[in-house]
Amino acid sequence: MSSVASVALTQAVIEIEQHVATDGWNQRPRMFALTPTADLLATQPRMAAALGITDEAAQAGGIPSLTSIEQEGLALNQPLDEMLAKMVWPPAVTGCALVIESQMLPPSAEEQIPEGLEGAALERWVGQHPERHDVRMAVGVLRDGTRQAAIRLRSKDSDMEVLSGPDLVPNLAEALLGTFEE
């Protein structure tokens, strides 16, 4: 994985999270395909133009090196892991990003989880816990294994408070990388 790919993915994931944040909280999961902007300009000039990406902007350095394209029609009537297991990307897609909202507990509260609690019952328990944090997670990966995440806490709902890093949501990153396996 190159540092150029890592920087491009970091920029894309943060921009995606900020884009989704403009629609507020309590959103459904949202998936984005990531493609090199130069490839999009060359192979899909109409789509690029519709997204406001032009050769002039590229020459002026005014476009990102990765372009995100939101995917409509996700099968949200099934668990996320099942949806991701069925997902396949065409070769032109070099990466993807998923934005989901969830609830997290601090490690001290995780020790309080009643033994054997799973699934919907666990979600209800976490949702009622006084120490829970509502979070929005944007996780992106590239085919080469590069990964990045951006996390926004509802209690600190500001672009300046978004945390980012490659290893913040490792299980989701692995699941997204699995969508590129042949």
TrEMBL record:
InterPro entries assigned: PPA1309-like (IPR047681)
Name this protein carries in UniProt: PPA1309 family protein
Source species taxonomy: Bacteria, Bacillati, Actinomycetota, Actinomycetes, Catenulisporales
